Structure prediction request, 256 residues.
Amino acid sequence: MIPYHLVDGAGTPVVLVNSLGATLDMWAPQVGPLTERFRLVRFDTRGHGGTNAEPGDWTVGDLADDVADLLDGVGAERAHVVGISLGGAIAMTMALHHPDRVGRLVLMSTAPKLGTIEGWHERATTVKAEGCEVLADATMGRWFTPRFHAAHPKVVAEFRKRFAACDAEGYASCCEALARFDLRGRLGGIEAETLVVYGTEDETISRDDAEGIAAEIGHAEVMPVEGAKHLVSAERPDVVNARLVDFLQSQVRPGA
Prediction:
C-alpha cells in the first residue's frame, strides 16, 4: 500500500519515518533545512493521520514494505531513510528487506527489540478499550524533558493533540507488530552507512542500546543528543538537523 504522504524539495530523496502515535507533522523542524538540499518524503504510518488502518495483523516487515511501495509511488529507486522509535524499527527492517533501495540510514531512539511482548499486548488492549487519549500524558512525559515542556508548551500540546486523535485500532495494530519485532543478531546484515542517534535523557532507549546497534552493524556512528528525551528530532532540532545534513550529503566512505 502507498501511505498518505507529502513531498517537498528536490534532489536525492530522503524518507522520514514517524514514531508510534505521531504523524508526518512531527518532522516540521526538519522540513526547512532538509528541503534546501534533498527531496523530502514524509508519510503517515498505517493507522496514523491520513493513512487508513489495513485490516488484519501487521508486522514491522509489512510497514517496511509500505516504505518500498511509497518509493515506487514517488518514482524513487533509492532513498536515504531516517526513522525514529517505531520508525527506526521500520528503517532497520527496510535496510534488511530492501537493501538496494536504501542509501544511508539514520536510526533515532530505537533498538532491535523495543519493549516487551507483554507490555505491547497490554498497551494494545488498553487503547482498544479506552482510546489513545488515556496514554497521552504519560507519552508526552516520555517524549520530552520537563525543560522542553516548560519552554515549549504549545509544541507539546500539538504533539499531544495528534497523539490523542490517533486511530485506536491502527495504534494497537502497531503495538502488536512491535510485540513481534525482534532484529537482535540480524543487524550485521545491514549494508547501509548508518548513523545511530539517542537522547541522553531518554528513559526508553539507552546509550548501551545505541552503541549495541552500531557494534552489530559494524560500520555505524553513534551520536548522543545532550538534554533530550525520546523525540530528539523535535526537542533538539538544531543539533539533529546539522548532523543529518552533514551525514546525508557527505562522501561515501572508502570501500563502501
User: Anything to note?
Assistant: The two ends are 32 Å apart (CA to CA). The longest helix spans residues 60-73.
